[in-house]
Amino acid sequence: MGISTIEHDPEEHQPMGFITGLLLGGLAGAVVMLLVAPQSGTKTRANIQKKSIELRDQTAETVQEAMTQARTKARQLTTDVQDKVEELKQRGQEVLVG
């Protein structure tokens, strides 16, 4: 009797294995962090909530600043284009007249 071997493609299960490992690693890290945290769960949750609010506010501020800068650049670009159009009109009239 021969030994039956089943061939497996090692690349076939890599993405699923990686994702599973990533999730299990993250879960294990979170559990360890909570077990060794020097503060109570209530304080930890309060800190997480506080930090998430700060992050939300910083993100909103950054987006607002970016939008303001984009509007300023767009206005400047519009003004530059209008100035160039006027300059070209003047040159065109000079060529026609001259």
Q: State the separation between the terminal residues, measured CA to CA.
A: 105 Å
Rg calc: 32 Å
Total individual domains: 1
Largest pleated sheet: none
Cα shape = elongated
Which consecutive residue ranges, at least 5 long each, have pLDDT under 50? none
Helix content: over 70%
The helix tally amounts to 2
Q: Approximately what portion of the residues adopt beta-strand conformation?
A: under 5%
- Which structural class best describes the helix and strand composition? mainly alpha
Number of strands: 0
> What string gives the helices and strands in order?
HH
Mean pLDDT figure: 78
Structure description:
The protein has helices at 14-36, 41-97. By secondary structure, it is mostly helical. The chain has one domain. The model has no long low-confidence stretch (mean pLDDT 78).
